[in-house]
Design brief:
Number of strands: 10
CATH superfamily: Alpha/Beta hydrolase fold, catalytic domain
Number of helices: 9
CATH topology: Rossmann fold
Mean pLDDT: 92
Shape: globular
Number of domains: 1
């Protein structure tokens, strides 16, 4: 419930910290509600109790700063009084990399604990925790929802690489060309992705078979996006498994001017 009696603005923090899982220092940017008076040009509403928290994941070419640089995310969340965590995921595809660092374990287990340690007002309820991302981050968000549903009660993808196995096998040119061995460094043998923990369809089937609570799912992709058919087919697959996906599409390709619009749709879907 909104509390109309108090006004809440936002504070933006840059946090450098050590990850025991990654065994290295890493960074995140965090937006937190802040009680203020007389701030010009921004208004908001406070929520009672602990903050709901949205984890926003970046795509392949970006880092934790991109959501602030390409969207007005601070302004969008001000009216809801929620926290936003924007972490750095490197080029990991949010996986425990075959030849690299265990980013899946970091994002699914360690990062939420660290955030709640640093910021005790963040809720630890899965119903209050969203993972959302663009492109590579869309894959990561759905993976968190389907693979760590005890922590992330909702997941949203914008132009997500939802079927990564199929994408790597496609003959069409990838806009982001990578050197030989790049994908093997993340996933191992690309032919082994299907049916593994890195396969979202496998995670969806497993979650149903285990009769665990399923996350709320949202997905949007532009009709001119090179991942459009990838998304359409995944939505149909999820429907066949009995999932309810809030799926949408419209004019647009793979760029931020569309994602800037649709992150606002995601916030309304999740919070209202």
């Amino acid at each position: 419930m909104m509390n109309g009696g108090r006004k809440k603005k936002m504070a933006l923090l840059h946090v450098d910290f050590f990850s025991g899982v990654l065994e290295k220092c890493t960074s995140m940017d965090v937006i937190l509600p802040q009680n203020t008076k007389n701030q010009i040009g921004l208004k908001g509403n406070a929520r009672n109790g602990k903050y709901k928290t949205a984890y926003l994941l970046h795509g392949m070419s970006d880092d934790q700063t991109i959501w602030q640089r390409r969207t007005s995310i601070e302004r969008y969340v001000s009216e809801y009084g929620i926290a936003v965590v924007m972490p750095d995921g490197g080029l990991s595809f949010y996986t425990d990399m075959c030849y690299g660092l265990p980013y899946w374990t970091f994002f699914s287990v360690e990062l939420p604990k660290i955030c709640r340690e640093f910021f005790p007002q963040m809720s630890d309820r899965k119903e209050d925790t969203l993972a959302a991302g663009v492109s590579m981050g869309g894959y990561g968000a759905w993976k968190l929802g389907l693979g760590a549903s005890e922590t992330f009660g909702a997941a949203a993808a914008l132009s997500g690489v939802l079927d990564v196995s199929r994408r790597l096998k496609e003959k069409t040119a990838n806009p982001v060309q990578k050197p030989s061995g790049f994908w093997e460094g993340i996933f191992g043998d690309p032919d082994g992705i299907e049916g593994s923990f890195n396969d979202l369809k496998y995670l969806a089937r497993r979650l149903k078979e285990e009769r665990k609570p399923v996350p709320r799912l949202f997905s949007w992709c532009g009709e001119e996006d090179f991942l459009y058919q990838n998304n359409i087919d995944m939505w149909q697959e999820m429907k066949s498994l009995g999932y309810i996906v809030e799926a949408g599409s419209g004019k647009g390709d793979h760029q931020w001017k569309y994602w800037d619009q649709e992150i606002q749709t995601i916030l309304k879907w999740w919070l209202e």
